[in-house]
Amino acid sequence: MSSFRILIFLLLTVCAGLDATAADAGGAPLNKLGDAFKNLGLAGGGQSELLPAEQAFQFLAEVKDANTIAVSWRIADGYYLYREKFKFELADSPGVRLGEIVPPHGDPKEDEAFGRVEVFHNQVAFDLPLLRETQGPATVHLKARFQAAPTGACVIRP
Fold first, then answer.
1. Where are the alpha helices (H) located in 25-122, listed in sequence order?
2. Which helix (H) or strand (E) holds 38?
3. What is the pLDDT of residues 18-50, one digit of tens each?
4. CA distances, 16 to each of 109, 130, 157 (Å)
5. Among 6, 17, 5, 4, which Cα is nearest to 87's?
6. Other CB atoms closer than 10 Å to residue 95's CB: what's the count?
């Protein structure tokens, strides 16, 4: 529906709880984390440096219909997303709330920080159901959070 607009506020949580503002601030915290991984021989799948978060995890949200937002990530080689760490909320979106969100199952992984988890490599996509009080046009402010890591790196709990 063309009158149904969406504004996306993407809050990235990568590895040790770094967020998109850290990546926007010259990448210094991410570069320091990458240097630490490199010094430990854990550069993430043979990479010499960590990619900027917005490059490693390309996020897209699109209005599928009046009651659904489709979300997806393209995940760079050598990185993965945790299934259990997706968090979504609608801010300043009166009359609209999120329904039950059920991401698809990922690949099983025994993680040192989180125990048995499911992770996604390459890509993941799923729908966010919208529960609306009215059927007219609405503006939705979606906040999407997730946690991710480079393959072969240790992950520190945020």
1. 28-39, 53-56
2. helix 28-39
3. 333 333 334 444 455 555 555 545 554 445 588
4. 18, 31, 6
5. 17
6. 12
